[in-house]
Write a structure and sequence with these properties.
Elements (H helix, E strand, L loop, with lengths): L12 E8 L15 E2 L5 E2 L3 H19 L4 E4 L21 H16 L3 E4 L4 H4 E2 L2 E2 H11 L3 E4 L3 E6 L4 E6 L9 H17 L8 E4 L6 E5 L2 E5 L10 H4 L9 E9 L4 E8 L12
Parallel strand pairs: 1-4, 4-5, 5-8, 10-11, 11-13
Antiparallel strand pairs: 1-14, 2-3, 6-7, 9-10, 12-13, 14-15
Helix pairs in contact: 2-4
The chain binds fe (ii) ion (2 copies).
Length: 281
């Protein structure tokens, strides 16, 4: 038994946000709820790994309820799209309408009763000629009475009542290995853009795309890379950096205390191996 004195520090959180990204719904390697049926009554059955990912997602939604999260940030890649280069391989369905329907079902418990703020994901996953699938999902939710707000590729969001600015985008860059360096550069150029009066002072960056949790807190700026809801996808592009492409699974809470200070809590879950599990020989 430790003899160290315990000290309880109290903090009051005025704003509580959830941030999620990269759901990649309808990939065979992403989370999927049970019991989804097409219009023709074809059941689209998830594999055990997909079910596990979905269970994690339900746990995260429960945490959001318990914490009375008021706002949800969605950083893109909600559905997996057409997988055109792979000619549809690795998908549960190529049909956009079905991908849109499942996204509406899955997002419903997370964004219900909260304001949600959406930016678009990778064009590869989320655009078919002349249409943005994610914008469509957001518009559907808005029409159903949800406070769902669509911003396109990037949004600078001012968090009331503190005036803190969050830069929300799906993210990008080609930093396969040393990704922290890219994040540091973004922070530096953000500061330069502010001094040159091109951008407001950005207090926090929130990005998806890399399927990787990383959080950097430097003087006056936070940089959050969000985890995802998809296991390793066995496509050729990823084989060359197999070890680096092992994703982080989960979501984050962004909490604003009574002084407007930002605290990030991450909720990361065990990684299921749907395609690359260990085989006995
Ligand atoms: Fe993604
Ligand atoms: Fe992406």
């Amino acid at each position: 038994m430790s003899t160290k004195k315990l000290k309880e520090l109290r903090k009051w959180f005025v704003r509580r946000m959830a941030a999620v990204s990269d759901l990649h719904l309808m990939s065979r390697f992403a989370m999927c709820p049970p019991n989804f049926k097409t219009k023709e009554e074809n059941p689209l059955m998830p594999n055990p790994g997909q079910l596990r990912l979905y269970e994690y997602y339900k746990q995260f939604c429960k945490i959001c309820d318990e914490w009375e999260v008021d706002t949800v940030l969605l950083a893109g890649d909600l559905v997996h799209g057409q997988n055109a280069k792979e000619r549809g391989q690795g998908l549960m369905t190529t049909k956009s309408n079905e991908q849109i329907q499942i996204a509406k079902d899955v997002l419903n418990p997370l964004i219900k009763g909260r304001s949600s703020h959406w930016v678009s994901g990778s064009g590869y996953h989320n655009s078919v000629p002349g249409m943005s699938i994610e914008e469509d999902i957001c518009t559907h939710m808005k029409e159903k009475g949800f406070d769902a707000n669509w911003y396109g590729t990037v949004a600078n969001l001012e968090v009331k009542p503190f005036g803190k600015i969050i830069n929300l985008s799906h993210g990008g860059g080609k930093a396969m290995y040393y990704r922290e360096t890219i994040s540091a550069r973004e922070i530096l150029y953000g500061k330069a853009a502010q001094v040159n009066e091109k951008l407001p002072k950005i207090d926090m960056y929130v990005h998806g795309h890399w399927h990787w949790f990383n959080y950097m807190h430097q003087a006056n700026v936070h940089h959050l890379q969000l985890p995802c809801w998809m296991a390793y996808e066995p496509i050729t592009l990823y084989t060359q950096a197999y070890t680096r492409y092992q994703p982080d699974i989960g979501g984050c809470l962004i909490l604003f205390d009574s002084e407007g200070r930002i605290t990030v809590w991450h909720f990361c879950y065990d990684l299921p191996h749907i395609s690359d599990f260990v085989r006995e020989i």
